[in-house]
Amino acid sequence: MSDTTQSLDLSAVDAYLRDHLPGYAGPLEARKFDVGQSNPTFLLATPARNYVLRRKPPGVLLKSAHAVDREFRVQRALADTDVPVPRMYLLCEDDAVIGSAFYVMEHLDGRNFAEPTMEGETNATRTAVIDEMNRVLAALHSVDIDAVGLSDYGPPGNYFERQISRWTKQYRASETGTIADMDALIEALGQDMPEDDGQRTLVHGDYRIDNMMFEKGGTRCLGVLDWELSTIGHPYADLAAVIMQWQMPPGREGRGLAGVDRAALGLPTDDEFIAAYCARRGIGGIDRFGFYLAFTFFRMAAIIQGVYKRALDGNASNPERARMLGQYVGVFAQNGLRALRG
């Protein structure tokens, strides 16, 4: 049985797949992807085809976190929609097999952009990739959740109220020291929350370019990945998450567009991206966007605090990166306050 996030019990995985996955045949090799801070992700290679395995990390975990069963369910439900996702093969909820629940899905043979500047690409490619990102986001928020069987995928009520409560609890559970800006942001979000406008859609929860796979040599999206934070909620949270990421510094750490001459690279402004999204969904505009942006900064701060705490506890998927991320909790909180006030 595997007791680490860094490796798999290959013999156990091989035996399980032989019994449960039609068409599977070994020998089996595995390699852990560097990405995937929350749920460790592995490439499974066989002579005939490759697969991807995502597992819940072992050890003591925060309540409701690392729900690989939800990831599996939502991607399977989206199989016949306009939202591209990998094919889901099987879900194993028996911890006895490798030490924690896992699922196996299709390996998408495409390319991934680590950051929105897409270094080395042409302006035409950058423009088309970001427009495809916009199209997929609008398609996601247009999915008929009743028709695909996801109407019960999230509780009713005010999504932001629910999320702020949830992530405040998660943050407090993983808190390693007092961060005044985070405390101030939590209080301000509760006081400045807009009235619920009744929009209730499927939301991804971590929608950004590095969680998408695109075709090789093209700009079509092959699949949206990493659905752990998905639920039924408010679509503006996903839209604001894109804008939040772009406000971070460029490069492999920030993966943003702060200070970048976007026009010179063929990239849209925040307002242009938002306008294109609204046009695709038939929305006239978005009031008080600063609140939604502040919320996404808050949620990301809470998430990386949890990643940092797992690193201290020895359960992080990538311990070195997790410790580095922990330094940015206060920065995200500051940015959230700035968005809310500005």
TrEMBL record:
Gene3D superfamilies, per database record: 3.90.1200.10, Phosphorylase Kinase, domain 1
CDD domains, A to Z: ACAD10_11_N-like (cd05154)
Coiled coil: none
Keywords associated with the record: Transferase
A Pfam family that the UniProt record links to this protein: APH
GO molecular function terms attached to this record: transferase activity
Keyword Transferase: yes
Domain Aminoglycoside phosphotransferase residue range list: 30-259
Keyword Transferase among UniProt keywords: yes
InterPro entries the UniProt entry points to: ACAD10-like, ACAD10_11_N, Aminoglycoside_PTrfase, Kinase-like_dom_sf
PANTHER family the UniProt entry points to: AMINOGLYCOSIDE PHOSPHOTRANSFERASE DOMAIN-CONTAINING PROTEIN (PTHR47829:SF3), HYDROLASE, PUTATIVE (AFU_ORTHOLOGUE AFUA_1G12880)-RELATED (PTHR47829)
UniProt name for this protein: Phosphotransferase
Organism annotation: Ruegeria pomeroyi
